[in-house]
């Protein structure tokens, strides 16, 4: 099958306009987005995406997790479709491109195929995975995890947010609980375009990241229980200060990650302090540890050391401790054939590129378990993401979408 001509390019202006249009939905307070999963803003973003898909002549399917699948027919309707996509949900202080570029880059590819009247052999499906971020309902990549058979549907439906609302209730409330059985769809391949969310591509002046691997992840939720009491009148030796326990475990998390450099990271991004009053010693804290590494042994060793040493800290301080894994996936090696399609597309289009390991988790990390999968990355300014100041250039967006386009069209066969 002839590779698509190197002058086959997407419409960069139209892609940029769509990104800016979507960014108006669920605006943040500092120029980014707060379009958290299953909120009204998420529902509005879904409806906008749905209307664009209808205009592009795509047939929309929605599964039991609310994941959206917009299908463009191929010349061989029996051929397994090639899927592209990412996520439209954002962090509470998210950027305009994390996830969104992958969904709208896929849609832009369809629009360009329509403009050129090109029909591929395999159908193509553009996907919006529900709850990739895992910020409102842990864990991250929840819908793609159910799709890949990692989580049961009922377990996913029972996940609760900070206000005690369940995933299932909220999915129902915004009207996006589909009929389709999760995981019933079979894929010829899956490609995800995503911003790097790290500094390497920009620092090296590269247009494209050819993603060969993804880091593995452990999210461990720790609950420390002490005794809330008066910060003024309780003598120091009598205190059971859960806040102090969290501080020492925060230091331990950092030290564990630093002992496995360069291929390990660790931090605590979420914590709830009870009763969270200025003059009460915290009687209880709940926080989540995020450990990651591209190396399986390192990842598991970090978790094991935390589980061994954190209870000793709790004991010294007279605290109760509970450590509960709330998110996990092993390091990922993407499909050789799909990765090569991405690399050759970048080559053919004359974009500078380098192989790269994804530091962030993505839906592709789960889909890789059930279909040949690869990712395309473009740079982002200062490598900043999960921050409202996240920024990319129109050129970077277009380069990423061009490479996605070529890799997909080659795999879907003209
Ligand atoms: O946590 C992650 O890596 C992804 O951005 N949700
Ligand atoms: Mn993302
Ligand atoms: Mn993200
Ligand atoms: Mn494992």
TrEMBL record:
InterPro entries registered for this protein in UniProt: Amidase_Cbmase, Bact_exopeptidase_dim_dom, Peptidase_M20, Peptidase_M20_dimer
Enzyme class: hydrolase
Residues reported to bind Zn(2+) 1: 87, 98, 194
Record-annotated Peptidase M20 dimerisation domain positions: 215-315
Pfam families linked to this entry: M20_dimer, Peptidase_M20
CDD domains, A to Z: M20_bAS (cd03884)
Gene Ontology terms, MF aspect: hydrolase activity, acting on carbon-nitrogen (but not peptide) bonds, in linear amidines; metal ion binding
Co-factor binding comment: Binds 2 Zn(2+) ions per subunit.
Cofactor(s) this protein requires: Zn(2+)
Record-listed Zn(2+) 2 binding positions: 98, 133, 386
UniProt keyword terms in alphabetical order: Hydrolase, Metal-binding, Zinc
This enzyme's EC code(s): 3.5.-.-
Family assignment from sequence similarity: Belongs to the peptidase M20 family.
Protein name: Hydantoinase/carbamoylase family amidase
Source organism (scientific name): Nitratireductor arenosus
């Amino acid at each position: 099958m002839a590779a698509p001509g190197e002058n086959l390019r997407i419409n960069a202006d139209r892609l940029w306009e769509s990104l800016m249009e979507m960014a108006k939905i669920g605006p943040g307070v500092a120029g980014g987005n707060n379009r958290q999963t299953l909120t009204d803003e998420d529902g509005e973003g879904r409806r906008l995406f749905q209307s664009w898909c209808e205009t592009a002549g795509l047939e929309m399917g929605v599964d039991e997790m609310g994941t959206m699948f917009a299908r463009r027919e191929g010349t061989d309707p029996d051929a397994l479709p090639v899927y592209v996509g990412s996520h439209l949900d954002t962090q509470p202080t998210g950027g305009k491109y994390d996830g969104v570029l992958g969904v709208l880059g896929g849609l832009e590819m369809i629009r360009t195929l329509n403009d050129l009247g090109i029909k591929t052999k395999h159908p193509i499906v553009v996907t919006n995975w529900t709850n990739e971020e895992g910020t409102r309902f842990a864990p991250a990549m929840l819908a793609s995890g159910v799709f890949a058979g990692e989580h049961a549907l009922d377990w996913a439906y029972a996940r609760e947010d900070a206000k005690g609302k369940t995933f299932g209730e909220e999915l129902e409330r915004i009207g996006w609980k589909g009929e389709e059985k999760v995981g019933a769809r079979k894929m010829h391949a899956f490609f995800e375009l995503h911003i790097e969310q790290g500094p390497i591509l920009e620092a090296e002046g590269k247009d494209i990241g050819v993603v060969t691997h993804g880091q593995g992840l452990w999210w461990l939720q720790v609950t420390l229980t002490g005794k809330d009491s008066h910060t003024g009148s309780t003598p120091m030796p009598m205190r059971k200060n859960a806040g102090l326990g969290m501080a020492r475990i925060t230091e331990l998390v950092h030290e564990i990650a630093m002992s496995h450099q360069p291929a390990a990271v660790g931090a605590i991004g979420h914590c709830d302090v009870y009763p969270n009053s200025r003059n009460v010693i915290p009687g209880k804290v709940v926080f989540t540890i995020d450990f990651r590494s591209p190396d399986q042994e390192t990842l598991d060793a970090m978790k094991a050391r935390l589980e061994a040493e954190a209870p000793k800290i709790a004991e010294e301080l007279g605290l109760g401790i509970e450590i509960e894994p709330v998110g996990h996936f092993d390091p990922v090696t993407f499909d050789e054939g799909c990765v090569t399609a991405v690399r050759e597309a970048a080559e053919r289009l004359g974009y500078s590129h380098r192989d790269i390991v994804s530091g962030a988790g993505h839906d592709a990390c789960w889909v890789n378990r059930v279909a040949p999968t690869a990712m395309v990355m473009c740079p982002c300014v200062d490598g900043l993401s999960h921050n409202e100041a996240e920024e990319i250039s129109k050129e970077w967006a277009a380069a990423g979408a061009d490479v996605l386009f070529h890799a997909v069209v080659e795999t879907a066969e003209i």
